[in-house]
Amino acid sequence: MSSALLTDHYELTMLRAALASGAANRRAVFEVFARHLPLGRRYGVVAGTGRVLDALADFRFGDAELSFLRDNQVVNEQTLEFLASYRFSGDVYGYREGECYFPGSPIMVVEGTFAEAVLLETVILSILNHDSAIASAASRMVHAAGSRPIIEMGSRRTHERAAVAAARAAYLAGFASTSNLMAGSTYGVPTAGTSAHAFTLLHSSEYDAFQAQIDSLGADTTLLVDTYDVAKAVRTAVELAGPELGAVRIDSGDLAVAAHEVRQMLDGLGATKTRIVVTSDLDEYAIAALAAAPVDGYGVGTSVVTGSGAPTAAMVYKLVAREDAEGALQAVAKKSVGKPSRGGRKNAFRALEDGTATAELVTTSPGDPAPEGSRPLLHELVRGGEIVGREPLAAARHRHQSSVAELPVLAHQLSQGDAVIPTVFT
Amino acid sequence: MSSALLTDHYELTMLRAALASGAANRRAVFEVFARHLPLGRRYGVVAGTGRVLDALADFRFGDAELSFLRDNQVVNEQTLEFLASYRFSGDVYGYREGECYFPGSPIMVVEGTFAEAVLLETVILSILNHDSAIASAASRMVHAAGSRPIIEMGSRRTHERAAVAAARAAYLAGFASTSNLMAGSTYGVPTAGTSAHAFTLLHSSEYDAFQAQIDSLGADTTLLVDTYDVAKAVRTAVELAGPELGAVRIDSGDLAVAAHEVRQMLDGLGATKTRIVVTSDLDEYAIAALAAAPVDGYGVGTSVVTGSGAPTAAMVYKLVAREDAEGALQAVAKKSVGKPSRGGRKNAFRALEDGTATAELVTTSPGDPAPEGSRPLLHELVRGGEIVGREPLAAARHRHQSSVAELPVLAHQLSQGDAVIPTVFT
C-alpha cells in the first residue's frame, strides 16, 4: 500500500511552486529534532526508525494517487510528471532506534533535492512523533516494573493501526509482550492473553468457565478472578487447576491490597508458584506504587498507548541548509518568535564519563570525528536512495537497554524535572 | 487488507475455550458504552461508526492470518476451522455517527453468537474510542471558532494512519478541511494547504519565495508571513500579489496582537479583503481567546489529533446478556469493584423539551416504543450479517450539527463540568 498520500497538502503545493521557480532541484538538508521533551520527562526514546524506512520504500505515486491529485487540482501536470517517477535518491542519517534522545539534537537528517526531501516531512514526523511518544512512556514503566514483565494491552484505546505501532514501540522499550495479534504477525512481537470477564459471564457459573478454560488452555493458564468475588474465585481456581495453576489476574479494586490477600490465599492453598498479574488503568506511577506488593506481572493499556499524558513527541522537520544560486550549501533558519530554528547541517554525539552520559553534543561540523570520550549518534540509514539501515526489532530493543543504562540514575525519577543531561551546541 | 488480526490475543483463546466447552454458540448481546466523558467535558460525539462497518466487512481470516495463528499456537485446529469460514452473521445497532452521547448508554449493540461477537471487541473499540475522542474535542473547537473555518493540520503529530481517521472525525464534527491528502482520497474530506517556512528558506529571499508561490498558485494563495519579520513580509506580500492576495498566515508570536497589527497593515495597504489565518498550537481555549481578534480562519494540529487532553474515549464492550443452557436470554453483569456493568439488552432515547435535550433515557425493554417527547438513538447498522447502515460522511456531519444544536447552551462552556444532561436508566 502506497504511503505517498500520508502527506500534507502543502508539501505538494510547495513542490509545485518550486518546480515552477526552478528552486526544486536545489540540494537541501532537513533535520528532525525535538523542541522539548514531554512535560517533566528526563529523557526521550527514539522509536519508529524502522517504520520510517518501510514508509520510504512504499512512498510511490501510482495511478490512484496521481488521479486523486489531478482530479482535485492539488497540483499541475508538471508536478504530476515529477511525482509519477518519484524515488527518493538522497541520504538519510539518524539516531538508531531505541537510542535515548534529548531536545534540539538532530534525530534524523534527510539530504536530497528540496523536491524529494520536502515530500517526506509528514510521514516521517507522524511515525517518529507517535512511536517515540509511546516508547518514551513505556521505558519509564519498564523501569518502574523492575524485573517483572509488562504486557501491552492498550489496542482498544487507540486507533486500530496505531495500536500495532504502539505494541512495537512498547516492546522495543522493554515490554515483554502485547495483546495485539497484528503486532505479532507484522513485527514478531510476542503475543499473550487468556480471557476476559465476558468468558466467565458466558458460562452458567464461574466454576464452569474456569473448567472450560483449563480444559482448553491447560492448568498453566491465567484465570481472571474478579468477575464476582475474588476470594471465592481464587478457591475455585485452585480447586480446579491444582497447584499447577499458572496465574490469576486481578482487574479491579485496590490492587496492592488485593494482591496481598490473593497471595496469602494462594500460598494457603498450596499454589505457591501461581503468579499474580494485575491490570486496570496502570501507569508508571501505579506500577511503582505496587513495587512492594506480591505482584508477578503487569498489564498496561490506556496509559502506554496514549504516551502517559504525552501522546505525541515534539519533533519537527526543518530545513537547515540549502544550495544557493551559485551551488554552495548555505545554512538557513527561520526567526519566528518563540520557535526559531538553528541553521546548518549538524552531527550529534553522546559524551560519557566512566560509562555515564554527561551531555548530548551537537556540532555544526558534520565531518569532524567524535569528540574524545563520546560516541556518535548519527548512523547511515539511506545511501543514495538505497535503504541500508534496516535491523531486527530485537537489535533496537537491546540498544534501548544499553542506552538507558548509560543515563545518570536521576533519569529514573518519576517526578517532573528537566532533561537529565544537557544538550550542548559547539 | 484484512482487519481480522487487529484483535487482542485473548479474544481468540476465549473463542478456543468456548468452542471446546460448547458455549461458543450461545446467543450473546454485547454493548459498547462510555464509562464517563473525557474529564470535564459536557458531551461526547460518536464517530467511527462508518469505519467500524468497513472493518467488519474486512474481518476475514485468510491464509496469512490463519498461518500466523497456527504457527504461533494461538489457537487449535478446531478454532482455525471456525475462523477460516468466519463471517459475522448477527445484528448491530448503534447511535448514528455524529450524534452526541452521554455516559452509560449503549452506543453500539452487537448481537450474535458469543463466538462471532466476541471477536469484534478490539477493532470496534479501537475505532470508536479513537474517532470519538477526536470528534469530541473537535466539536468544542468548532463551537469556539463560531463562523470561522478551521483547517485540521495535525497529521504529523499522530500515527500516520490515525491521522487519516482524525481528519475524518474532525471534519464530521465541523472542521472545514484537512491538510491530510489520504483523508481527501479515502473519505472525500476537502484538503487545503499552501506553504511552510521551508519554502521561504529555500529561496534566496522572501521576495523570491512569495513571487514563486504567487506565480504558481495565483494571487488568491495564502502567504506565510512569519519566517523573518512579519511587518516586512506583509508589505512584500501585498506589493507582489496586490489587493487580490487571498490570505496571510501567522504561525508564531502573540497571535491576537499580531492579528490586529497585520489587519491594520493590510487595510492600510488596500488589501481589505485579504484574510488572516492563524496557526500555532491552538486548542479550543486559544481559539475562544481569539474571538475578538480580526482572524478569518484557524489551523489546528496537535490538540485536535490528540483529543485536546483526552486522546481516547472511555468506551468498553461488555457482555450484557446471553443464552442459558435452556436457550433463554439471560441478563449478565460483572460485579468488579468500581467497574460494574449493567446487565440486559438496552435501548436509548434522547428526551427533548421544546427542542432542547433534557436527558438520555436508557430502557431495558428494547422493544418498547420511544417514550413521548423523545427520539430513538439506536439504528440498525447490520442485519443478519449484511451491512445496512452505511451513509455518506456528509450525513454524519450534518447530523452532528443538529444534534449539538439540541443541547442546552451550557454544553458549550469550556470550563470543566459534568455531562450537560443526565443519563436516566428506567
UniProtKB/TrEMBL annotation, chains A, B:
Chain spans, region Disordered: 355-374
The Nicotinate/nicotinamide phosphoribosyltransferase domain, residue ranges: 151-348
Catalytic activity: 5-phospho-alpha-D-ribose 1-diphosphate + nicotinate + ATP + H2O = nicotinate beta-D-ribonucleotide + ADP + phosphate + diphosphate
Metabolic or biological pathway: Cofactor biosynthesis; NAD(+) biosynthesis; nicotinate D-ribonucleotide from nicotinate: step 1/1
PTM entry text: Transiently phosphorylated on a His residue during the reaction cycle. Phosphorylation strongly increases the affinity for substrates and increases the rate of nicotinate D-ribonucleotide production. Dephosphorylation regenerates the low-affinity form of the enzyme, leading to product release.
Keywords noted in UniProt: Glycosyltransferase, Ligase, Phosphoprotein, Pyridine nucleotide biosynthesis, Transferase
Domain Nicotinate phosphoribosyltransferase N-terminal: 5-129
One example GO MF annotation: glycosyltransferase activity
E.C. number: 6.3.4.21
Keyword Aminoacyl-tRNA synthetase: no
Alphabetized InterPro entries for the sequence: Aldolase_TIM, N/Namide_PRibTrfase, NAPRTase_N, Nic_PRibTrfase-Fam, Nic_PRibTrfase_pncB, Nicotinate_pribotase-like_C
Family listed: Belongs to the NAPRTase family.
General function of this protein: Catalyzes the first step in the biosynthesis of NAD from nicotinic acid, the ATP-dependent synthesis of beta-nicotinate D-ribonucleotide from nicotinate and 5-phospho-D-ribose 1-phosphate.
Protein name: Nicotinate phosphoribosyltransferase
Biological source species: Sphaerisporangium flaviroseum
